[in-house]
């Protein structure tokens, strides 16, 4: 059965801008404020990772501290370890996200350790977050394929998802990092994970490299999942997944949901304008078909 409402988790300012040419902190703040103004209430605003690995996110602290906060909006950031967690808290985030993978090779390339080592690193972060009542989201990358290993066993996706959930992550975001999934496989993957993690604790984080993300989301919505990660203007990719393009454009998924009578609480015109503005700053074409049709 399809959900009545979908919660959009906007990742453009992080997943998007981490893989674009660097933009000023001011432009990031403007983007984040425009997204909130369009009615988005869950915004990933930055990433506290090594600035040597991802220089585009090096100003996350400054960005998060400079946002004029909108009431009811949760501002989040990626934190791979305790150091990142402490920096994120100091910047004033409402919640954080840890990120693991269902592929050993991707884990090594992305965070320089094995899946097991990453879990060990997350333990002190989770303990600290619990003691401070900070919600932690958990990402699992490569759920429908890996740029280094190819196909990934869905049992491994379910295993890693369950570990993160049982460690205390309030939601598990399933990342098709390189956008290779197709609808039937995507749905089976979600159904398999949902045997170990309640379906209402799952989110879809689908990159649109092969143009399949919208179809994959539609197939998965029927499993009961109702949280979708998306990136305004289809910004971005992943620096450790060569050839990956951005997440599905938020405008495109909101347009589809509107047409299906599924509520998101988002003003599509304002959202499309936010995407246009950041695309202009980047000097790139807007990656949202809907935004290009609307504006
Ligand atoms: P490491 O080299 O194994 O860690 O990197 P380390 O603890 O040995 O530290 C090395 C250096 O990094 C040290 O500095 C640390 O201080 C510093 P140095 O002594 O060389 O000057 N450092 C930090 N600096 C700032 N913030 C921190 C931090 N931690 C250590 N938190 C590490 C391990 C995880 C840090 C590194 O591999 C890294 O930063 N990786 C970046 C990964 C990344 O950001 N990838 C993109 C995001 S994930 C993604 O896009 C996928 C997702 O969207 C889902 C999907 O699509 O599938 C989420
Ligand atoms: Mg991603």
From TrEMBL:
It catalyses: (3S)-3-hydroxy-3-methylglutaryl-CoA = acetoacetate + acetyl-CoA. InterPro entries: Aldolase_TIM, HMG_CoA_lyase_AS, HMGL, PYR_CT. Pathway: Metabolic intermediate metabolism; (S)-3-hydroxy-3-methylglutaryl-CoA degradation; acetoacetate from (S)-3-hydroxy-3-methylglutaryl-CoA: step 1/1. Transmembrane segments: none annotated. Residues 6-272 form the Pyruvate carboxyltransferase domain. It holds the Pfam family HMGL-like. Its EC number is 4.1.3.4. Belongs to the HMG-CoA lyase family. This is hydroxymethylglutaryl-CoA lyase. It comes from Shewanella maritima.
């Amino acid at each position: 059965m399809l959900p009545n409402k979908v919660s959009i988790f906007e990742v453009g300012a992080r997943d998007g801008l981490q893989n674009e040419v660097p933009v000023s902190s001011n432009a990031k703040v403007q983007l984040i404020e425009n997204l909130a103004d369009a009615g988005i209430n869950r915004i990933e605003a930055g990433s506290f990772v090594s600035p040597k690995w991802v220089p585009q996110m090096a100003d996350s602290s400054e960005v998060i501290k400079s946002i004029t906060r909108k009431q009811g909006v949760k501002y989040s950031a990626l934190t791979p370890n305790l150091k990142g967690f402490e920096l994120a808290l100091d910047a004033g985030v409402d919640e954080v996200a840890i990120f693991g993978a269902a592929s050993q090779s991707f884990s090594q390339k992305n965070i320089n350790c094995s899946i097991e080592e990453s879990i060990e690193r997350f333990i002190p972060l989770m303990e600290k977050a619990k003691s401070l009542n900070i919600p932690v989201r958990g990402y699992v990358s490569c759920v429908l394929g890996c740029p280094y290993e190819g196909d990934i066993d869905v049992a491994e996706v379910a295993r890693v998802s369950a570990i993160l959930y049982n460690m205390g992550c309030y939601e598990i975001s399933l990342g098709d990092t390189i956008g290779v999934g197709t609808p039937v496989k995507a749905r089976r993957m979600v159904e398999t994970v949902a045997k170990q993690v309640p379906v209402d604790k799952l989110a879809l984080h689908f990159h649109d490299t092969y143009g399949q993300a919208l179809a994959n989301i539609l197939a998965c919505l029927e499993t009961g999942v109702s949280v979708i990660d998306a990136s305004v203007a289809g910004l971005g990719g992943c620096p450790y997944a060569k050839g990956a393009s951005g997440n599905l454009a938020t405008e495109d998924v909101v347009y589809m949901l509107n047409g299906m009578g599924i509520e998101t609480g988002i003003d599509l015109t304002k959202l499309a304008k936010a995407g246009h503005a950041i695309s202009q700053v980047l000097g790139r074409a807007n990656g949202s078909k809907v935004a290009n049709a609307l504006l």
